[in-house]
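Design a sequence for this backbone.
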């Protein structure tokens, strides 16, 4: 006699369960609708996204956190303590109904990504997005579903280099920290000391240049071999966080402000390099002179080489238009972000001065094992950057490889290194590294470069 009653209770239980499921999915659907964009689109949601590159293997997926733990506009996410990510924002902008590009934002820098492959998945399945960075021969491969992307950031020329990547639509924050002012001022010029975790590597000094706008923090770090380009982040309470991503390099700075004149933290470059840094406020500190860091041990012997160019010809320094002319030699690599900045500077100089410009040759040392592949990449790099001067392949990127071509130098301390040769092709000036447009040194370098060129042409 009790069986029908038990059946009724079972039916009620299943009904309640069904209602709960319905409410749950209705809520999820409603939340999903909240992040839908208002405009129609055919591929990727237009507007601002927040991407993250995982520097360590993921232990925990992104999880929502609610106020008051974080003050927020849009979503916020929590990571396990052992995880460090390089966050960056990018905008999706449509050029037509089915053509779009991405614009990566790092402080004042805008990187346009237009080499894109998109394929729609079967009904109910994720779409596929591949973002190519031709200058670096790297790419992001991701699956896309609504306002979410997940995939890998891959650099084929580096062994086993595939980092986890995620992105969410509508998240305009770079770092998820409370929107409160820092305890101490962080703006200004800082003397920094970096100590790599790898004890076989030497410590080195840098200069941090930071400015703040509200809770947002911008700046760069200069070293004797270059700079860490456009950094963007936040300063909140006693914490600072800065990052940059350009399609090849993924930099992360995390630090703690101890007082108005000191701070310390960790610097990550990709998954393998980590250094601890300390900083003290110092407006007078200077790095070594980039014009004297690299020594010329044989100033009387002329530079000579015959090397293959990206255009399929041999560039001979003893042949026209280089014979009996001062020449600018750029020792560089397409994998080097400071080299990219210097290439743009030299390209602008060559175009601005026109026929009056001194001949320039870029001598590249690349990670590619195959010579033909390296030359193809140099050709594409030259086209993408708009370089009007020849790029030649100096060889594979190996320790002191440039010295086989330039034995007049004691060592190579940095990529890039700029050589200015007189009309007999003897080395007159050497400039180590490159302080790019993100730094306060850039205008001074421009003036010094022009003065050096005038001096060479008067000889």
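Sequence:
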């Amino acid at each position: 006699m009790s069986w029908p009653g038990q059946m009724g209770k079972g039916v009620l239980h299943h009904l309640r369960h069904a209602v709960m499921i319905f409410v749950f999915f209705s809520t999820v659907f409603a939340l999903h609708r909240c992040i839908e964009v208002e405009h129609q689109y055919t591929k990727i949601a237009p507007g601002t996204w927040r991407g993250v590159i995982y520097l360590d293997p993921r232990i925990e997926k992104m999880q929502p956190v609610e106020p008051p733990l974080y003050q927020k506009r849009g979503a916020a996410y929590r990571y396990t303590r052992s995880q460090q990510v390089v966050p960056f924002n990018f905008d999706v902008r449509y050029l037509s109904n089915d053509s779009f590009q991405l614009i990566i934002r790092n402080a004042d820098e805008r990187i346009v990504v237009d080499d894109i492959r998109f394929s729609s998945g079967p009904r109910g399945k994720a779409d596929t997005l591949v973002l190519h960075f031709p200058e670096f021969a790297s790419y992001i491969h991701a699956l896309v579903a609504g306002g979410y992307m997940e995939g890998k950031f891959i650099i084929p020329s580096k062994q086993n280099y595939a980092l986890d990547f995620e992105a969410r639509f509508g998240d305009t924050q770079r770092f998820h920290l409370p929107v409160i002012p820092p305890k101490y001022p962080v703006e200004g010029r800082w003397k920094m000391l970096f100590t790599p975790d790898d004890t076989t590597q030497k410590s080195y000094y840098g200069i941090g240049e930071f400015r703040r706008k509200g809770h947002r923090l911008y700046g760069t770090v200069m070293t004797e071999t270059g700079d860490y380009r456009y950094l963007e982040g936040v300063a909140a309470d006693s914490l600072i966080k800065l990052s940059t991503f350009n399609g090849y390099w993924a930099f992360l700075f995390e630090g703690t402000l101890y007082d108005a004149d000191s701070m310390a933290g960790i610097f990550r470059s990709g998954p393998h390099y980590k250094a601890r840094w300390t900083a003290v406020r110092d407006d007078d500190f200077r790095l070594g002179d980039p014009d004297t860091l690299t020594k010329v041990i044989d100033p009387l012997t002329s530079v000579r080489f015959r090397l293959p160019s990206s255009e399929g010809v041999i560039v001979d320094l003893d042949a026209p238009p280089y014979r009996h002319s001062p020449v600018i030699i750029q020792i560089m690599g397409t994998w080097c972000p400071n080299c990219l900045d210097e290439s743009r500077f030299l390209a602008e100089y060559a175009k601005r001065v026109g026929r009056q410009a001194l001949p320039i040759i870029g001598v590249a040392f690349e990670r590619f094992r195959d010579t033909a592949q390296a030359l193809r990449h140099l050709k594409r790099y030259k086209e993408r950057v708009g370089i009007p001067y020849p790029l030649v392949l100096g060889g594979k990127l190996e320790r002191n490889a440039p010295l086989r071509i330039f034995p007049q130098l004691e060592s190579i301390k940095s990529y890039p290194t700029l050589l200015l040769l007189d009309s007999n092709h003897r080395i007159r000036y050497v400039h180590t590294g490159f302080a790019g447009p993100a730094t306060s040194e850039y205008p001074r370098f421009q003036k010094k470069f022009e003065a050096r060129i005038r001096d060479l042409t008067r000889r």
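Helices lie at 3-34, 337-353, 371-385, 442-458.
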